[in-house]
């Protein structure tokens, strides 16, 4: 199992939680971004810089994710691609995407895109809060606690 992060828009506090979790659980953590990222020195943590461009980081993650991996992203189309590959997706606010909810979330995202394209101001997401941080940390801890024991500490 590996954790992938769609890092360009990922809040810094979420990255900090992930750094600690990767070290504690000894799970490879890869942050993928269009910009150079500084990550703590660790055998478990690495950053990958991809070319600038629309969905370049998302496409890299979607191409490399394997069944059972976890992807941290707020991007619904990326989450849908991850779920299709039998991996897991978790957004920075602690919502786990799965087969049971991804289609509805993708449909809603597409509907909102259509509204925005027609000139309707749909607003944006609320500011990232302390409760969002806590929800993410709790969901990540539960996810990691439920992974099979044979994966614990493995690098694959």
Summed up:
With 156 residues, the chain is an alpha/beta fold. Helix content is 42%, strand content 14%. The protein has a six-stranded mixed β-sheet with strand order 3-2-1-4-5-6, with helices on both faces.
What would you note in describing this structure?
It is a single chain. With 156 residues, the chain is α/β, with parallel strands linked by helices. The protein is built from 5 helices and 6 strands, in the order βαββαβαββαα. A 6-stranded mixed β-sheet has the order 3-2-1-4-5-6, with helices on both faces. Strand 1, helix 1 and strand 2 (29-33) form a beta-alpha-beta unit. Helix 1 runs parallel beside helix 5 and helix 3 packs antiparallel against helix 4 (102-117).
């Amino acid at each position: 199992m590996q954790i992938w992060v769609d890092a360009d828009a990922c809040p810094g506090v979420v990255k900090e939680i992930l750094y600690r979790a990767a070290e504690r659980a000894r799970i490879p953590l890869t942050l993928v971004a269009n910009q150079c990222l500084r990550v703590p020195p660790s055998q478990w943590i690495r950053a990958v810089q991809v070319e600038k461009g629309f969905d370049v980081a998302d496409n890299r993650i979607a191409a490399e994710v394997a069944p059972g991996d976890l992807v941290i992203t707020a991007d619904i189309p990326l989450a849908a691609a991850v779920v299709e590959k039998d991996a897991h997706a978790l957004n920075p606010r602690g919502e786990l995407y799965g087969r049971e909810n991804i289609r509805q979330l993708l449909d809603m995202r597409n509907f909102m895109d259509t509204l925005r394209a027609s000139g309707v101001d749909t607003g944006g997401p609320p500011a990232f809060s302390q409760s969002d941080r806590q929800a993410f940390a709790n969901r990540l801890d539960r996810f990691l606690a439920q992974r099979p024991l044979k994966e614990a500490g493995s690098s694959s």
